[in-house]
Amino acid sequence: MTSTSIKVWDLFIRFFHWTMVIAFLTSYLTEGETNLHFYSGWYILLLLSLRVIWGFVGTKYARFIDFVKPPSEVLKYARMLVFKHQGFNKKHIGHNPLGGLMVIALILSLTLTCISGVMVYTCEGKRFYDVVGQPLLQYIDEHEQHLIEKVAGNVNEEGDEAFWEETHELLSNLTLFLILLHIAGVILSSHLQRQNLIKSMIYGRKKSTKNDRLRDKH
After folding, report:
1. Where in the sequence is the domain holding 83, given as residue range(s)?
2. pLDDT in tens, 142-161
3. Is there a domain that residue 218 lies in?
């Protein structure tokens, strides 16, 4: 059956995907270099916040409702893939069930990694507004600084700092592992579906047949 090219990934999803790659690599490779590491971390948090919002109000294939499947459906797809049962290589216009699960896992892992990074920073004796960025301090008068200090406080106990440093490192490595799994999954899916999914995330288009589109509506 003849396949046609259809628009799947909108501009925001593609921007989110590739700038997230750059931001995570920047954060991961600049551990110990405060400015780049923490500003890229805050950028990741901003991207994640926008992605969650877009997951509810964005285009069809960007919405969580399109690709977040119940565990039974994810397991069924995984079994078909492992044992090559009928339907294991059928095309999914958006994310397949395992791909959808990976999206959620990466969002959670990245979010927890960033939060633990903020905790490491505060445990080093920095105040909350210091984490946001030194350039912003000139816009905060003495009264506002005092109020933020009173609300946020300082956490600098050695035990807390060691705990958050270990947690941050563990979550960073877990995120890297998930990313490597994601890359492997993309390569495998590209082979099974006989199309370049990396190219699809660049240009936003995927090949699909009429049957694929009919299945997608059900």
Report:
1. 4-209
2. 445 554 454 444 444 556 77
3. no
